[in-house]
Design a protein that fits this description.
It is a single chain. The chain has one helix and ten strands, in the order αββββββββββ. It is mostly beta strands.
């Protein structure tokens, strides 16, 4: 019984801490990368507008999302990107992915908590392809 609890505790911790993200200044996820954030943390990453890439590290287990916001404090949500096994580990922030602030969450872009609520919002798959505008 003790062994089962020990194994469960180890694997449970590994699954809950699976994927982290860092915003970087360059387009290759190398220069001046910020502090790592857990992608299941629903907090706002404010004032990230001058960043050009996001570096993911860890293992992608399940489905999560990254949403972006036109204002510096995660006001209305402008777009949503599903993060899955198709998402590159270095995501370049160009085109519709450029924003002033970002947030992460668990689930997909189809989940009610991740619905877009700004005019002109877009839903993107793990490769950045628009599948709903």
């Amino acid at each position: 019984m003790k062994f089962a609890i020990f194994v469960s505790a180890i694997f449970g911790a590994a699954l809950s801490d699976a994927l982290w993200a860092e915003f970087c200044d360059d387009f290759e996820c190398n220069v001046n990368c910020g502090e790592s954030v857990h992608i299941e943390d629903p907090g706002c990453l404010a004032n990230e507008g001058n960043r050009h890439s996001v570096k993911f590290h860890g293992e992608i287990i399940g489905i999560n999302y990254m949403s972006w916001h036109p204002g510096p404090n995660c006001d209305c949500q402008e777009g949503c990107l599903t993060i899955d096994r198709e998402t590159p580990m270095c995501l370049i922030l160009t085109g519709s992915l450029v924003a002033q602030s970002y947030s992460f969450g668990s689930g997909s872009c189809y989940d009610p908590q991740s619905y877009n609520n700004c005019p002109g919002s877009k839903l993107l798959d793990g490769n950045g392809t628009v599948f709903h505008a």
